[in-house]
Every structure is written in C-alpha cells, then in structure tokens.
Specification:
This protein is mostly helical and 116 residues long. It has two domains: 1-63, no CATH class; 67-116, no CATH class. The protein has eight helices and no strands. It has helices at residues 2-17, 20-33, 39-46, 53-63, 69-75, 81-93, 100-106, 112-115. Helix 4 packs parallel to helix 6 (81-93). The radius of gyration is 15 Å and the shape is globular. The chain starts with a helix and ends with a helix.
Length: 116
C-alpha cells in the first residue's frame, strides 16, 4: 500500500507542474495504474483548452467513481460530441440517480451517436 500511496502522490503532484507533453505521459500512467485517487487531479483538465483535454476526459471517465457524477454530467453538454460520448460511456459504467434526468434528455439529442 505504501508504494501505491507514493505513486498516487507523485503523479498527482506532477500533473499540475509538468509541461503539456509530460502531462500527456502522466495521464497515460494514471490510466495504466487505474487508481480512482487520480480522478480529482484530472478535474481541472476536463474543462481545459488544451490538446490533452480529450486524454484527460478519457482518463477521468475510466477512473471516476459515483462521487464524480456531477463532473461527468456536465460533460454530457459539451459541444464536442466525442467528449459527450465519453461522458455517456462513463455514466453507463457508474450510474447514479442524479444521471437519470440527464440521460432522458439525451433521448432527443441532435447527435445520433448520443441518442443511441
């Protein structure tokens, strides 16, 4: 457990201080390790205007727990359909009661991929 705690702390600190290309590697390492403790460190990058945003959203949706549902629900309204699709996939894997009304709204979404 000590090694896990050290890895979590190291990557959580590194993601905020690293240059963009190194952040990409940090996020990939977070995804590979799969520890849910990384999800909170990814939140600022979910709404970030940078090339790593898609990767951060992908990692977040894999690592998120039901406590992160509010962030995932916000991503359903993202103008980028790929981001919204990732959010939808995450909700399918970690459904919560709060996601039901948002999922109903998707039934009439203009993007076919999100409706189906």
């Amino acid at each position: 457990m000590k090694n896990r705690d050290m890895a979590v702390k190291a990557l959580n600190n590194l993601i905020h201080d690293a240059p963009p290309e190194e952040r990409r590697r940090v996020i990939k390492a977070m995804m590979a390790l799969g520890y849910p403790e990384y999800a909170d460190s990814l939140i600022p990058f979910l709404y970030h205007d940078s090339p790593i945003r898609y990767l951060a959203v992908n990692a977040f949706t894999l690592l998120a727990t039901p406590e992160h549902a509010s962030h995932i629900l916000c991503l359903l309204d993202d103008p980028d359909p790929m981001i919204a699709q990732l959010a939808l996939t995450a909700i399918q894997h970690t459904p919560t009661e709060s996601s039901v009304p948002r999922l109903r709204r998707l039934l009439t979404h203009m993007d076919d991929a999100l409706r189906s």
